[in-house]
TrEMBL record:
Keyword Chaperone assigned: no
Domain of life according to the entry: Bacteria
Keywords for the protein's UniProt record, in alphabetical order: ATP-binding, Cell inner membrane, Cell membrane, Membrane, Nucleotide-binding, Transmembrane, Transmembrane helix, Transport
Record's protein name: ABC transporter ATP-binding protein
Membrane topology: Multi-pass membrane protein
BP GO annotations: oligopeptide export from mitochondrion
Length: 644
């Protein structure tokens, strides 16, 4: 296969949307602005976030009503407090009126109880809606990623994708669950409190709110800083997830242990962790001085109100009563938390906008390969059923440079139904690429790939792939039982069908010897099994699918000679009666093929049977002779010369 090399450990993978970020000094404003310009810009972001709540309109309406009622009730106690002071505790006659006071206290307690019950109900509704929206968003993103073409995943670290699904979606959870109720509740509370303050005394109201515009401006500046830090934090989390996925998988652990690189991996993770800690601290501390200043200012207002009220009373310019002062400061005190809540929500929205942008950035990716609106099903079995044809096909991998030679160049071939066709040639010649184009994992750059007489671009990809079974060199098994791995091909398969497929793949007796038989856990990627056992389970899985076309991509090249002979016998059984396409490294496995295609530098340079190609004495004969020579082992080692 001729493709772009993968990244080395620790490198940042480019996937079209993953951009390299420089960490710049906060003092370098120009550099910071340049970095911010790299952040994803999503049109109509707020509208798209709002659309996520559309399926929950009825619940949101109930929530809004509860919020409005609760917020309106929250300003009633201060007004009752005024009456309690002026009419109950200190009436004009001078003697407390206990009956009036009792009624007012009872009303206050009733308001508090109703508000508490409404708050519980409101919290349940908002938590339900928020978590449903978050869950739907996560599934939507996962579904969209399933539709992406193979090249997207070859260019993107698995850990980066996992971070989008887990860290980014999880990072907006608080906004999704609390934003609506917080904005509505705090807004109504602030407005109601402001009206109540005006009704109580307009002069004191001016004193209480005169500096609010300055606070709003400061809050906006803090929000911009927090949004920038949030974006960096999520990128760092992506890097940490990628490192974890790379190094703590079975393959990664084996690699690091084999090269004694554990300490290097620890240092790499620790370095990114230090960066994450720094960013988390910066994110939590950003705005703390702002909120501290706001808290001090708002908390100091009652003292200022007392001073102003005293001056007004002293000058005789107002008839403020003690009850009015107490009620006013009570309302003003109740104004502090809603105002802080609104400011925090505004900051959270600005912070979460970076996370939402990253999520929608992935959702806006367009799959490079998709079905046409009128795509058809693969035709039912007929004279063309299972025929594979390449008609002057040319192909370059999407990330190949403009001056790179084509991976496949003007390839034309025909594989008849039921034929056993083999592709051989040096490494990087383009053999595996042929197997990728047949199920349309990649799109031909030019020419046509035909399946059962129809251009694959005119077929539904799901229907196309359902007619093709693939056994690759790198067998992938899930961390599940053998039975569950087999049923991945056919979920409704009976136990008898599993046994039949396993027998055909020469693996049943081995499975039957395990203590838990088909309920044996295979371990991550099947590491509890030998290479030959994994490969035969993969063959059994394909046999359970029972496709008319079988692709074998160097399915035995990584096995020892004993395992190879057992697996090869299973492959011979699997290929019987099917159109079989084998990409072969060991030529001894395809000597009985109906047709052999010799691929070199992206072109088919020879084709024919094993005997015909040997008789020509050219490329294939040379490859075969080299393999035969390299497989010969001297029967006797030369004697060691005696020491002088």
């Amino acid at each position: 296969m001729h493709g772009a090399p993968g990244p080395g450990p620790g490198s940042r993978q480019q996937a079209g949307v993953e951009r390299p970020r420089k960490r710049v000094s906060g003092a370098d404003a120009a550099a910071q602005r340049a970095e911010n310009a790299l952040a994803p810009r999503i049109p109509h972001l707020l509208r798209r976030i709002s659309a996520l709540f559309a399926p929950h309109r009825s619940t949101l309406v109930v929530t809004v009503v509860l919020v409005l009622v609760s917020a309106a009730l929250s300003v009633v106690p201060p007004l009752l407090t005024q009456r309690a002071f002026d009419d109950g505790l200190f009436p004009a006659g001078g003697t407390p009126n206990l009956s009036v006071l009792g009624v007012l206290v009872a009303l206050m307690l009733g308001v508090f109880l109703v508000n508490a019950l409404l708050g519980v109900w409101q919290t349940w509704l908002t938590a339900t809606v928020g978590n449903k929206v978050m869950g739907a968003l996560r599934v939507r993103l996962f579904t969209h990623l399933q539709a992406m073409e193979l090249s997207f995943f070859t260019k993107t670290k698995t850990g980066v994708i996992q971070s989008r699904l887990q860290n980014d979606v999880g990072g907006v959870a608080t906004v999704l669950t609390n934003t609506i109720s917080s904005i509505l509740g705090n807004t109504v509370t602030v407005i109601a409190a402001f009206v109540a303050m005006l009704l109580l005394n307009w002069q004191l109201t001016i004193v209480a709110v005169v500096l609010m515009p300055i606070l709003v401006f400061a809050q906006r500046r803090v929000g911009q800083v927090r949004a920038r830090i949030a974006g960096k934090t999520q990128e760092s989390l992506s890097d940490m997830t990628a490192i974890t996925q790379e190094t703590l998988s079975v393959s990664g652990i084996l690699l690091s242990k084999s090269f004694t690189r554990q300490q290097n991996e620890i240092e790499r993770y620790a370095e990114e962790n230090r960066n994450q800690v720094r960013l988390q601290v910066s994110q939590q501390m950003s705005g703390q001085w702002f909120f501290a200043t706001v808290s001090v200012f708002l908390s100091a207002i009652p003292a200022i109100v007392y001073l102003v009220a005293g001056a007004l009373v002293f000058n005789g310019t107002t008839d403020i009563t003690p009850g009015t002062i107490v009620a006013f400061t009570t309302v003003q005190a109740r104004l502090i938390f809603p105002l802080l809540g609104l400011m925090r929500v505004a900051l959270d929205l600005q912070t979460s906008s970076a996370l939402f942008a990253r999520i929608f950035e992935y959702l806006d990716l367009k799959p490079a390969i998709s079905d046409k609106p009128d795509a058809a099903l693969v035709p039912s079995a007929g004279s063309d059923g299972g025929r594979v044809e390449f008609d002057h096909v040319r192909f370059n991998y999407p990330d190949a440079g403009g001056d790179a030679r084509p991976t496949l160049d003007d390839v034309s071939l025909m594989i008849e139904p039921g034929q056993f066709a083999a592709f051989v040639g040096p490494s990087g010649a383009g053999k595996t690429t042929v197997s990728y184009l047949i199920p349309r994992f990649y799109e031909a750059s030019a020419g046509r790939v035909m399946f059962s007489g129809v251009d694959v671009r005119d077929l539904q990809q799901e229907s196309l792939v359902s007619h093709i079974g693939i056994v690759s060199q790198e067998t992938y098994l899930f961390h599940a039982t053998i039975a569950e791995n087999l049923r991945y091909a056919k979920p409704e398969a009976t136990d008898a069908e599993l046994v039949a497929a396993a027998r055909a793949a020469n693996i049943h007796d081995t499975i039957d010897s395990f203590p838990e038989k088909y309920d044996t856990m295979v371990g991550e990627r099947g590491y509890r099994l030998s290479g030959g056992e994994k490969q035969r389970i993969a063959i059994a899985r394909v046999l359970l699918k029972d496709p008319p076309v079988l692709i074998l991509d160097e399915a035995t090249s990584a096995l020892d000679s004993l395992s190879e002979s057992v697996v090869q016998a299973a492959l011979d059984t699997a290929s019987h009666g099917r159109t079989t396409i084998a990409i072969a490294h060991r030529l001894s496995t395809i000597v009985g093929a109906d047709v052999i295609f010799v691929v070199d530098a992206g072109r088919i340079v020879e084709r024919g049977t094993h005997a015909e190609l040997l008789a020509r004495g050219t490329v294939y004969a040379s490859l075969y002779a080299r393999q035969i020579t390299s497989s010969l082992v001297p029967s006797e080692a030369p004697e060691r010369l005696p020491a002088p």
